[in-house]
Amino acid sequence: MLRKESTVFDMAYRGKTAAVKILLNENEKLKTQTDSNDRMLIHWAALGGHDDLVRHLLSLDVPVDPPDDTNMTPLILAASAGREKVVNTLLAEGANVNATTIDGHSALQYAASKNWKSICVALLEKDADVNITDKRGATPLHRCASKGNTAIVKLLMESGKKLKIDQRDIYGNTPLHLACDEDRVEEAKLLAAHGADLTITNRERKTPLDLASPGLARQLEEIKRETASK
């Protein structure tokens, strides 16, 4: 006999949809039961990328946005794990696109950090806040610029949203500061070409150029001269 309490969450994560449905038929309370991390079956099904199970749970009137003990919602988990089908399902069912964890991390921040472009597109189409900040003041642009996720940097800048390209985190760093510090050459050049400030200083009174390699600094200054002359 299955030990429901100890196995059903793992079954949901592994996509054992038929088995989970049997258990739900036997005990309807399982649909909103939580584990030691305050996660429901829908959290684990979303994290595992099992869209069929997510849809079934939603059909049973399971809430779409339950928070776990760190305020992770199924949408945030799915976005972080690159589960595009589940993300689209949850968004279609009204999931809060701008929900954040206790550290202030949103679905868009995770997707931008992990280079999930199609998920970023889906989130932005549902009005994800392009300038949303975490507890350290970092935006999605900070995340993708520092990670070297060129496609996401382009997407955010071309999204038609009112992107704050020079937003500072709690350390005073702009996305360009981080791109220069990590020697993310393409990202830094993209930011400069779109008007990022080369002279803005962080809390250590460093400009992006101070953090850039000599070669990158020269390229950025050249881009600024070219854009200024147009």
Keywords summarizing the entry:
mainly alpha; elongated; Serine Threonine Protein Phosphatase 5, Tetratricopeptide repeat; about 230 residues; 14 helices
Any overview of this molecule?
With 230 residues, the protein is mainly alpha-helical. The chain has two domains: 1-96, Serine Threonine Protein Phosphatase 5, Tetratricopeptide repeat, CATH 1.25.40; 129-230, Serine Threonine Protein Phosphatase 5, Tetratricopeptide repeat (Alpha Horseshoe), CATH 1.25.40. The chain has 14 helices and no strands. The protein has helices at residues 4-14, 17-26, 41-48, 51-59, 74-81, 84-92, 107-114, 117-125, 140-147, 150-157, 175-181, 185-193, 208-211, 214-228. The longest helix is centred in the last third of the chain and has 15 residues, at 214-228. It is elongated.
The gist of it:
The protein has about 230 residues and is mainly alpha-helical.
Number of helices: 14
CATH architecture of the largest domain: Alpha Horseshoe
Unreliable parts:
1-5
Rg on CA atoms, Å:
21 Å
Shape: elongated
**CATH third-level topology of the largest domain:** Serine Threonine Protein Phosphatase 5, Tetratricopeptide repeat
Helical residue percent band? 40-55%
Indicate the structural class. Answer: mainly alpha
CATH superfamily of the largest domain: Ankyrin repeat-containing domain
H/E element sequence: HHHHHHHHHHHHHH
Give the count of structural domains.
Answer: 2
CATH class of the largest domain, please?
Mainly Alpha
DSSP summary, beta strand count: 0
Arithmetic mean of pLDDT: 95
Distance between the termini: 74 Å
What share of the residues does DSSP label as strand, in percent? under 5%
- Main sheet makeup: none
